[in-house]
Amino acid sequence: xxxxxxxxxxxxxxxxxxxxxxxxxxxxxxxxxxxxxxxxxxxxxxxxxxxxxxxxxxxxxxxxxxxxxxxxxxxxxxxxxxxxxxxxxxxxxxxxxxxxxxxxxxxxxxxxxxxxxxxxxxxxxxxx
Length: 128
Description:
The protein is of the alpha+beta class. About 35% of the residues lie in helices and about 25% in strands. The protein has a 5-stranded mixed β-sheet with strand order 1-2-5-3-4. α2 runs parallel beside α3 (about 70-90). The model has no long low-confidence stretch (mean pLDDT about 95).
């Protein structure tokens, strides 16, 4: 099997992955999954597509993660892994689609407007 490349995005996070057959190692920015995401919940989020298709120990994944926070990065990585798995086996697409792993979450941060403290929040109104 050659190297499969895939891209995942979420908010400001971008995950570029390179997937090959192997023992199930996941390297993120030259660190292991446990080092990069100490939270068990985020590790679970990253491994969801692999667990769904029951291929957890089958592929080695090298990841370049950039931007965003840890939650956005984990979800961007989940999307990239799901897209790579579809490239490997197109038959798995309906199962991944049903779980929502192939849907790119389009929500982004709304820009700050002038004359306001945040995008929609207003300064406290004073009648007198």
